[in-house]
Amino acid sequence: MRQHQPVNPFVCDCIHDTASCLSSSAVRNAAIKHVTIIGGGQMGAGIAQVAATTGHSVVLVDTNEEILKKSAKGIEGSLKRVVKKKFADKPDAGAEFIAKVMANVSISTDAASVVGSTDLVLEAIVEDLKIKQGLFGALDKVAPAHTIFASNTSSLPITDIASSTSRLDRFGGLHFFNPVPMMKLVEVIGTSATSQDTFDSLLAFSKALGKTPVSCKDTPGFIVNRLLVPYMMEAIRLHERGHGSKEDIDIAMKLGAGYPMGPFELLDYVGLDTAKFIMDGWVEKDPDNPLMQPSEMLNKLVAEGKFGKKTGEGFYKYK
Ligand SMILES: NC(=O)c1ccc[n+]([C@@H]2O[C@H](COP(=O)([O-])OP(=O)(O)OC[C@H]3O[C@@H](n4cnc5c(N)ncnc54)[C@H](O)[C@@H]3O)[C@@H](O)[C@H]2O)c1
């Protein structure tokens, strides 16, 4: 894992002259080859792994070296698991594969100094609107005109995040699913200001990662969470009303609907804190929508620090 060598972020390397670089609507987006991923957590590291594996040049950015070292170790560990299966009889080819992928990834703690040659800034940091806006607002001033910005947010409007920048036409959403190397879907989100060129580039990039993209407008929850979160919340309410045990509801949805996990197992996997965070945001925006109502049981579990698998207890115990 290399430290990224910064290039001059103030040098515009797009194909236009300086004047047209400043004019956002004139910018056409070429294929995305160089990606800066901000946030080396669960999602950022997963996206970095997939992008590097598919031959993209990746800079992974986080707030400190320790986190980045952990992210790099996580990527390497994940690649080793891939190699164990794919190169079972060819250990040398496996090692070569890992070295090649890891050579595509560099790390940095200074986003502003690394975006000077990037085609895409993809953000996967903490789910906080102000912090995301601050990050993109600062990078908007130093990134080249052709650079597309995208957020991996699960619950915040892309339009609100983009409003901190002057590149509304080159801003979209790329919503990946956890664990990124395993999950095939990417929701590509366009706001009312996202240009067709930008949207097409994000679709093409998702395909270049080996994913299957679907197109979606900037609507709460996009497609998957808009359907999944109300479903999981109704499962909790069903249980709260005493109409079925969580075990029976899980069995029913697995055997009756063919779902790989029941709603309570899925809630524990996603994180009850995350589910509550998403629902609270929706309730605030649309309090009269019956699909978007809080649950006492969920709130109580979160208040007790029972977030699901990651804390050892949620609806079920994991210790
Ligand atoms: N976890 C999921 O299942 C999932 C799925 C889809 C989308 N998302 C979204 O992806 C984003 C990241 O989620 P995650 O689960 O990877 O979170 P995470 O907590 O695992 O990782 C976030 C990382 O961002 C870093 N960070 C925070 N502020 C930063 C800043 N200003 N600059 C650089 N790095 C910063 C943190 O140090 C941390 O390493 C969130 O917006 C979340 O809603 C999460």
Automatic annotation (TrEMBL):
Belongs to the 3-hydroxyacyl-CoA dehydrogenase family. The record marks 175 as: Important for catalytic activity. Its main location: mitochondrion. It is found in: Mitochondrion matrix. This is Hydroxyacyl-coenzyme A dehydrogenase, mitochondrial. Residues 221-318 form the 3-hydroxyacyl-CoA dehydrogenase C-terminal domain. It comes from Oncorhynchus mykiss (Rainbow trout). Keywords: Acetylation, Differentiation, Fatty acid metabolism, Hydroxylation, Lipid metabolism, Mitochondrion, NAD, Oxidoreductase, Spermatogenesis, Transit peptide. GO terms for cellular component: mitochondrial matrix. Pathway: Lipid metabolism; fatty acid beta-oxidation. It comes from the Eukaryota. CoA binds at residues 78, 85, 154. GO terms for biological process: cell differentiation; fatty acid beta-oxidation; spermatogenesis. The keyword Kinase does not apply. Its EC number is 1.1.1.35.
